[in-house]
Structures are given as C-alpha cells and as structure tokens.
Amino acid sequence: MKSASKANFKQNYKTHLKHLKLKGLQPSTIDAYARAIRRIGAHFDYRLDDLSEAQLTDYFSDLLDSRSWSVVKHDLYGLKFYYTHVLHKPWTIDLIKPPKTQRLPDIVTPDEAKRLFMATRVLSFRVFFFTLYSLGLRLGEGLRLQVGDIDAGYRRVHIRNSKGNKDRFVPLPDTTLNLLRRFWQVHRNSVLLFPNRRGGVKVAQPLRHWSAPVFGTPCKR
C-alpha cells in the first residue's frame, strides 16, 4: 500500500513541478515549494490526498517549534498550491497566520565597504563587490548582469528579472562605468559582465562566504 501511495505521490510531484514553472514563479520560490511538498510527503507517508485539519494542525504546530517562520510559510503556501493546482481541491483550511514583519536592510557603511575592497585580492571579486555597492544591487542581480544591460549613453543600468519578476533602472556612476570598461577588457565576454572561468555565470555561494571575514556574516541575496 505504501509503495502505491509513493508512486502516486511521485507522479503528482512531477505535475506539481510543471505547474510551478507554468505559473512563472521565481526559481527560488519553485525550489521552496517543491522542497515543502517533499518534506510534507515524507512526513505523511506520501498520502497527501485527504489530510484532515487535525493532521495539518499537528504538523504545522510541530514545524513551528523546530523551524523558522520562513519554512512554515513555504510549507503552507506550497501545500496550498499543491491542493489547488495538482489535486484540484479548494483550500479552505485557515490554520496559521504568519506574523507580518518589516525589517530594515543591513546597510554596509563606507568604512566596511573600503575594508572589503582592500581585503579582496581577486580582481573579479573586487570589481563585482564595488559594482554591487555603487549600484545598490542584490547579489543575484549583480551575478546576472550582462554587457547589454549597461547604458553608457544615459548613464544607467537595466536590472532584469529582479525580486517579484520586475525590471528597473539604476543610475550608473562614471567611476563604476570606467571600472567595468577596464574589467571587460580583461575577460572580453560578449554576454556576461562577471563570467566564471569557463565563460558561464558565477556561483553565488562562494561570493557570500568570501565576505564573511570582513563583515562577520556572508553577503545576502
């Protein structure tokens, strides 16, 4: 019986992934909702079709004791998506209400930025961090920058597919423009501003931990 339930869950999980992609969600959201269904499926022996309110109440109560609100929200919204788009069942259970929080972003001071630039020996990292700081970009936004995003004539940069699938323009200081021009002469990649050694996009994880000795914590997304 368990093997049959697992096989059915596996098929539904594939459908879940397809719907997540078709809805145009961000890759990070797709990953979070997919991980949520895997976690919930394993907890309930892959029988998600007829979960009772009592079962879900116990699950989320235990989850809240051991995990962050971020994980709880991803599991809740991921399961709601699964019920709506895979099982085609209405989600009528009002279990929890995550608290609304409004946090101020961590601002890097000029002194911290100077320490980071001085401590960075790798040229590509130094230029990358300076670009993030001078343009006010998130880590992922900087990694995705392309040569065609730089508008030297209007002194602006086109930031594409940012948070919430939105684009925006940010001012481009002359200092940053000149630095990027000199750096491009080093790698001459026709597409990416910050390619890896093989010409592809750099990976975010090493860059986050690179900043830890300077700031005490890794760079955030």
UniProtKB/TrEMBL annotation:
Top-rank taxon: Bacteria
GO molecular function, one term: DNA binding
Alphabetized UniProt keyword annotations: DNA integration, DNA recombination, DNA-binding
Any one biological process term the GO annotation gives: DNA recombination
Gene3D superfamilies, per the entry: 1.10.150.130, Intergrase catalytic core (1.10.443.10)
Domain called Tyr recombinase: residue spans: 103-221
InterPro entries: CB (IPR044068), DNA_brk_join_enz (IPR011010), Integrase-like_cat_sf (IPR013762), Integrase_catalytic (IPR002104), Integrase_recombinase_N (IPR010998), Integrase_SAM-like_N (IPR004107), Tyrosine_recombinase_XerCD (IPR050090)
SUPFAM superfamilies per UniProt: DNA breaking-rejoining enzymes
Residue ranges annotated for the Core-binding (CB) domain, each copy included: 7-87
Similarity section: Belongs to the 'phage' integrase family.
UniProt protein name: Site-specific recombinase XerD
